[in-house]
Design goal:
three-stranded antiparallel β-sheet, Immunoglobulin-like, four-stranded antiparallel β-sheet
């Protein structure tokens, strides 16, 4: 039986493509890198954290309507937490959130608001 050079090339390219797919599937996604805190609900204000170290103590700072609120949470074994605040964020309220863990995890963001001065 004779296998042509083009068959060898085709098999080689197929094997290389399969290897790339397998490697890409095992690599961590860019969204898995580092801690994150997301807004779950505006009323009551609820935040969910992920990507923190297991059982890391995290100090949350929330700035809303000129007032700063603090809370300390402990991430679970998977590095996640949920924290509800007795606050409600209106559509036109800017919101700043920061989270600092005692093992070095840090994240912060600001939710900007639409131009509410043009409302009826």
């Amino acid at each position: 039986m004779h296998i042509s050079t083009s068959s060898h090339l085709s098999i080689g390219l197929t094997a290389a493509a399969l290897a790339l797919v397998l490697l890409a599937g095992s690599a961590p996604a860019a969204t898995d890198a580092g801690p994150r805190v997301r807004l779950v609900s505006a009323a009551p204000l609820s935040l969910a954290g992920s990507g923190f170290a297991p059982r890391e103590k995290v100090k949350l700072t929330v700035k809303l309507r000129g007032t700063t609120h603090h809370a300390v949470v402990t991430a679970g074994p998977g590095g996640r937490f949920v924290r509800r605040f007795a606050l409600a964020r209106g559509r036109c309220d800017p919101l700043t959130v920061s989270a600092r863990g005692n093992r070095g995890s840090r994240v912060s963001w600001t939710l900007n608001v639409p131009d509410c001065s043009l409302q009826d």
